[in-house]
Amino acid sequence: MTTAIADRAAAAPAFGGGDFAGTARMLRLYLRRDRVVLPLWTLLIGLMPALQVVSVKDLYSAQADLDRFAATTADSPALIAMYGPVFSSELGSIGTWKAGAMYSMIAIATVLTVIRHTRVEEETGRAELVGATSIGRFAGLTATLIMTYAGALLAGIACALALYGADLPGAGSVAFGAALATSGILWGSIAAVAAQVSAGARVARGVAFGALGAAFALRAVGDAGNGVLSWFSPIGWCLQIRPYAEERWWVLIPLSAVAVLATAAAYVLLGNRDTGSGLIAERTGPSMASAGLAGPLGLAWRLQRGTLVAWTVGFALYGLLIGGAVNSVGDMLDGSAAVRDMVTRMGGSQELQESFITYAITMLAAAAAAYSISAALRLHDEESSTRAESTLSGAVGRARYALSHIGFALLGPAAALLLSGAAIGVVYGASDGDLGARLPQSIAAAAVQLPAVWVVTGIAVALYGVVPRFAPVAWAVLSAMVVIFFVGSLDGLPQWMVDLVPFVHPPKLPGAQFQAEPVLWLLGIAAALVAVGIAAFRRRDLH
Fold first, then answer.
1. 285 — alpha (psi -120 to 50), left (phi > 0) or beta?
2. What angle do CA 216, 217, 222 make, to 5 degrees?
């Protein structure tokens, strides 16, 4: 910052009308950029709870079944840690039990949206260029928060309407929708604070997701214990609103208060730092690079290692929870003809425990695909920030450079998924008294899902190579796959559409027989997509 600029900044008030100039124009720009992604996550997150309710309604036609489900869940600390407690045996409470995960999903969506339009804009230098015009200092943040908060509100409204349309009580539907919207707004405000912390978007995302992970851990440990720790977690507060179980409307007050305080803090912090800088100064690196950074693979490892470790640890912990819940699921679901039919179609076995493992690992495979997309699109981030151009100006071939990151997109999910499978097998085998059989079965169930994950990796790589501008569309593709898989399992979609989802094709281990043909087909498709992406990247110009 020059002396003249510093003098003007010191003389100007911290907040003023001019600081918000151009907010409407920035909002139009951001809405145009997110015209596909914003409606997608808003609708998907808003409609998923109603889909959960429909599935439960189909499975449990008698109140006695719902009562047994609630009683069995209350006796399973592992299930409570995974999804939270069930506060009532009414259809609405049981139906939205697993949908409590949407409180975390909307948090992820709002965090990514806020950091993309704030810290990423500063990191790439676009915010400085825009700020040199007649755009006020707080216009970008204000436009981002308006768009993000509006998306969360629309998701909450869509959720409430969908739940009410599923013949659930209006008060509970509004309570769940309000909790969903408030969770999105709260975590969007936390992301706005995280965006002021570091000059790098990667660190900002790490701070926000670290806070979200801590909130989930506090909620899980608290709910599985005496419940005290849950009150230190915003995720726990959302569950404590208790839709369809004598709603606690007052819990919305602390959620809203934290959102307001965090939003105000973001503005104060932004007003006290320079554009492009962070509150935590970047450390000066060593004068000489280590031997591990001698090539593109070492650089990719340096950029990817933190995310890889975090995802792998998270998968292992979730695998432990799933393994502890397997036997409880058998007691919870046994005795229902509708459940048996569901098991046959989704799990490939009449054994409820084996089918639960199949379904749980399939969901973990979808999560592994999300990590894979993130790792593959690191290429897109490096190119858009012009760092790739500097790297490729040396004696580094394009294919070698691309493969250094694609390797993590392929091997990272393999490590995380196999470790989660091992965790499931160890806990389930120890409780079942047959560790020697359960461990290899669970690892094999995880291993056969890897080709499906790699197909998603290939889609991301192909998009990046052929149409780099639309590379983030890979997230929309994965979201659509998850929705099609879930709805298709309820016979809600034609089979040809369900067949477009790679996760439905691997053998349904451990209950079914292994078949090599679908695995080989998925591997071939994944390899072809990756090859197309690399070939296109080698021939096009850098953007």
1. beta
2. 100
Output b/e per residue, 61-80; b: 16+ Cβ within 10 A: eeeebbebbbebbeebbbbb
Q: What is the pLDDT of residues 96-111, one digit of tens each?
A: 887 888 898 899 889 9
Alpha-carbon gap, residue 165 to 177, rounded angstroms: 13
- C-alpha–C-alpha distance, residues 410 and 402, integer Å: 12
For 289-313, how does the pLDDT look when each residue is reduced to its tens digit (9 = 90+)? Answer: 676 677 788 888 888 888 888 888 8
The first and second tokens of residue 170, run together, are 């209006």
CA distance 449 to 412: 14
Cis peptide before 468 (omega within 30 of 0): no
Phi first, then psi: what are they for 319, rounded to 5°? Answer: -60, -40
CA separation, residue 374 to residues 317, 377, 407, 460, 511 (Å): 20, 5, 12, 9, 31
For tokens 């790490």, the residue is: 206
- pLDDT of the residue at 6: 42
pLDDT of amino acid 13: 40
* Alpha carbons 99 and 51: distance in angstroms, whole number: 9
pLDDT surpasses 70 at 239: yes
Kindly give, in sequence order, each residue whose CB lies less than 8 Å from that of residue 44, ignoring residues fewer than 6 positions away: 479, 483
Task: Give CA–CA dist 75/378, Å, rounded.
Answer: 43
- Comparison of pLDDT for 1 and 21, the residue scoring more: 21
Phi, psi of 138, deg, nearest 5: -100, 5
Alpha helix (H) ranges present in 36-169?
A: 37-59, 63-74, 77-83, 91-95, 102-117, 119-123, 126-131, 139-165
Consecutive H or E run containing 339: helix 337-346
Assess whether pLDDT exceeds 70 at residue 86.
yes
Interhelix angle 252-271/170-194, nearest 10 degrees = 20
Lowest average pLDDT, out of 285-289, 324-328, 426-430, 444-448, goes to: 285-289
Look at the block and give the residue holding tokens 């704030």: 118
Please name the helix (run of DSSP H) or strand (run of DSSP E) that holds residue 326, with its range, or none: helix 296-333
Half-sphere exposure at residue 467, Cβ-oriented, CA atoms within 13 angstroms? 7
- Mean pLDDT of the residues in the chain: 83
Comparing C-alpha atoms, which of 87, 76, 510 is closest to residue 332? 76
Please give the C-alpha separations between residue 200 and each of 66, 114, 250, 487, in angstroms, as whole numbers.
49, 14, 37, 38
Residue 7, judged by CB atoms within 10 A of its CB (0-12, 13-18, 19+), counts as exposed
Give 492: exposed, middle or buried? Use CB within 10 Å, 0-12, 13-18, 19+: middle
What is the rounded distance in angstroms from the CA atom of residue 72 to the CA atom of residue 336?
Answer: 14
The two tokens of residue 143 are 């436009």
For the chain, the first-to-last Cα distance in angstroms comes to 29
Would the pLDDT of 456 be above 90? yes
- How many angstroms separate the CA atoms of 233 and 318, rounded? 18
pLDDT confidence band for 74 (50 / 70 / 90) = confident
Task: Fill in the amino acid letter for 193.
Answer: V
Please report, for residues 15, 45, 142, 310, the alpha-carbon distance to residue 108 in angstroms, rounded to integers and kept in the order given: 30, 11, 19, 15
